[in-house]
Amino acid sequence: MIQAILLDLDGTLLTDQKMISPRTKQILLDLQAEGKKVVLASGRPKRGIEPFAEELRLHEYGGLIVSSNGACVTDAATKETLFEQAIHPNDARAILDHLTGFDVIPMINDETYMYVNDVFNGMLELNGEPFNIIEYESRGGRFRLREAPRLADAINFPVYKILVAGQPDYLQAHAASLAGPFTDRVTGMFTAAMYYEFTDFGIDKARALDHVFQNIGISRDRVIAFGDGHNDRSIIEYAGIGVAMGNAVEDILTIATEMTTSNNEDGIATVLSRYLTT
């Protein structure tokens, strides 16, 4: 019997239209009514996860929100922070200054604002089309925008992660240089082809959840996790059942306990329907 369901958002719970399908939504509501705990675990900041937590009624069932790749865990019902680990301010400032030497778009956020160097300089070319990454991130996280010519000067709040956007080929070619000076102080990883993210050293989704689960009596062998991206590796390895979406990257397909259909084909519902008791 499973006690908890861990779900990545983009590419996993959400379809390519950034929606939860009706079938998947209903099964998750039914399983919560049976006492299963649903956990949304994403690289997104908390503000970007909350609308989907509300849609799934996590506030009624005591679900959890794991944001910024595991840097913060929030109880959806009480709004209590159960775990948090921000990047040390000195490290965050050093990283942001280091990034000025690269052709990338760094972003940081507090509870209300997303801070960027230039709100008019957010264009990338993705799949042959122009794409405004600053607009996309600010809308997805429900943030207002603030400019800071030197982002390091804007830090007077906990920096749970530093998001670095750029052309996929450029990021791949420069990833080692982006992270190089800080590998002993922070964790850097790709979360999508156009995203490289920094969190505090050792932070990942599973480490944060293990801390919380031990306090509330959930055993990892009674956890099922779903993911598709590199930053889901920790939860796929951590859970008793780790499920790779059909659209998952090769690294996740290799380590998963099983594979399901894609995020656009109710892959989560296909697996979870086996665990309904009613």
From TrEMBL:
GO molecular function: hydrolase activity
Origin organism lineage: Bacteria, Bacillati, Bacillota, Bacilli, Bacillales
EC number(s) given by UniProt: 3.1.3.-
Source species: Exiguobacterium mexicanum
Protein keywords: Hydrolase
Protein name: Cof-type HAD-IIB family hydrolase
SUPFAM superfamilies: HAD-like (SSF56784)
The keyword Hydrolase is assigned to this record: yes
